[in-house]
Amino acid sequence: MSVDFAAPALRHAQVPDESIVEGPRVLRRLPEGADERPYEQFGLRPLGRVIGAEIDGVDLAKPLTAPLRAELNRALLEWKVLFFRDQDITPAQQRAFARNWGPLETNPLLPKGDSDEVTRFSRSAAMPGFENIWHTDVTFRPNPALGSVLRLVRVPSIGGDTMWADMAAAYDNLPAGVRERITGLRAVHDFVPGFQRFSEADFLAARQDEFPPVEHPVVRTHPETGRRTLFVNPAFTTHIVGLDRDESDRLLRLLFAQAHVPEFQVRFRWTENAVAFWDNRATQHYAVNDYAPEVRVAERVAIAGDRPFQG
Fold it and tell me: Which of 6, 7, 91, 282 has the lowest CB atom count within 10 Å?
């Protein structure tokens, strides 16, 4: 397959003002019909209306009991991203915690930590970060990650926050006509647009057979909550199947813009040994690249996921 590595990425196209609807938002955190229930295994402090909560009273270095694992999973589904402070854990303990949700995946496109299952991000002025784009991890794979566990090893004194967006809220707040328009549509996801910013053309070309483009539904049904979420992102989604390029680009710009709405977001200020655990099926995230010339070091493990579908 021939790829034009110099082609301008779609993410740089201007987003029209009318793509974000003004006025009140529908801020529904739980699936329709779900009841609020207290948490008994830990303390939970919400950080946003629909997404993000800080967990107290859990030591990630210790094995999880069945009741604790079940309640953490419920919190993950309800809040989409969970934060744990002061977790001085080893990479092996980080992997063990993540394995409570399934086998871990590896990503040969990214730098490794102490094992193939750990990705180590070390960013400074000499090695700038390129994560500052809204995205869902590895949607260029047939089975994108279920979730990720990220630990900050070294935190800059200023900046370096990460933001997450609730893509179910983003879907809920689309105009009814747009929701109807995108039902049943599929989009192509490709690793090239996301990696061409910092990778050589030879490296990209050598990985084409290992990571060919894949199709996913534009609207994904969450396999556990049943909620519909927007499942396109500007890092990896290139076009919508069956639409001409201009129409596909216009529609994708509108859908990409939904992650930019503050009401759907949470922003987390990292501290050393803080951990974030997020549901990759329900969110997008954005690493804020505002800390140069200081250094930011993070280690991440990702949990293998399943094939997206629209039910």
Answer: 6
* Catalytic residue flag (residue 12): no
4: in domain: no
Print the domain residue range for 280.
39-303
Do the domain assignments include residue 178? yes
Outline where the chain has alpha helix (H): 66-79, 91-98, 167-172, 176-182, 191-195, 201-206, 245-257
Q: DSSP 3-state assignment of 29?
A: coil
The pLDDT, as a whole number, for residue 79 is 98
Domain of residue 228, CATH code: 3.60.130.10
Per annotation, catalytic residue among 137, 166, 172, 279: 137
Active site residue: 220, 228, 285, 296, which one? 285
Catalytic pick among 123, 222, 281, 300 = 300
Is 137 in the active site? yes
The answer, as to whether pTM is greater than 0.70, is yes
User: How is residue 219 written in tokens?
Assistant: 């609207």
Is the Cβ–Cβ distance between 113 and 91 less than 8 Å? yes
Give per-residue pLDDT as tens, 39-57.
999 999 999 999 999 999 9
Tens of pLDDT, residue by residue over 193-232, are 766 676 566 766 667 777 899 999 999 999 999 999 999 9
